[in-house]
Amino acid sequence: MRVAIAGAGAVGRSIAGELLENGHEILLIDKAPTAISVERVPMAEWLLADACEITSLDEAALQRCNVVIAATGDDKVNLVVALLAKTEYGVPRVVARVNNPKNEWLFNESWGVDVAVSTPRLMSALVEEAVSVGDLVRLLRFSHGDANLVELTLPEESALAGTRVGDVQWPEDTSLVTIIRGNRVLTPSHEDSLEAGDELLFVAAQAREEQLEDLLSARRTLR
């Protein structure tokens, strides 16, 4: 997979290094000569250019990229890169970094963003996820379809503990994608039973989040 990363600072280089380890083809783009540190990520391609300029993106052959990541420290730049990548080059997947949480509302499909990553929001979500049982935690927002990646740890008293996945009447526009049980990561099947303490990851429409939380947190009826 070919991935172009706009912004060769610490964040961009870190992403590039990890993707290279996973066998992907990486192009790092930055307009600051001081950011061009080939020795730090020697396996990547490097381009000294302004990622907000069409001529630069032509040189980068952005139309050949499967993914573009706008990872600069400037939200305005990231939005412009995302919009150009999607509208001018038809890049299938555009991921954008949100530096200021106040700007998060702009990072949507209107600006060509498929996935917006806000570090402050993600950090707070991970703190919540670590201490919350029975509460829905939003981990990541997907622009298309107004969907989010959400997590809930199934409480001991949940009415769904011991229930098979296939027997649960899940809300519309929700999909259980992963069960984390101890050290195991499970791809859920209809025959798998839910257990108290399971960390459940869903892709869910925002409008369904409250309904999903109510379903998972509902207490057993005492007899």
TrEMBL record:
Q: What domain of life does the native source organism fall in?
A: Bacteria
Q: Does the keyword Transport apply?
A: yes
GO terms of molecular function:
potassium ion transmembrane transporter activity
RCK C-terminal domain mapped to chain residues? 137-218
Which ranges form a coiled coil?
none
The reply to whether Transport figures as a keyword in the UniProt entry is: yes
Give the CC-aspect GO terms: plasma membrane
Span of domain RCK N-terminal: 1-117
Provide the alphabetized UniProt keywords.
Answer: Ion transport, NAD, Potassium, Potassium transport, Transport
Q: Name one Pfam family in it.
A: TrkA_C
What is the name of this protein? Trk system potassium uptake protein TrkA
User: What organism does the UniProt record list as the source?
Assistant: Streptomyces tagetis
Q: What is the lineage of its organism?
A: Bacteria, Bacillati, Actinomycetota, Actinomycetes, Kitasatosporales
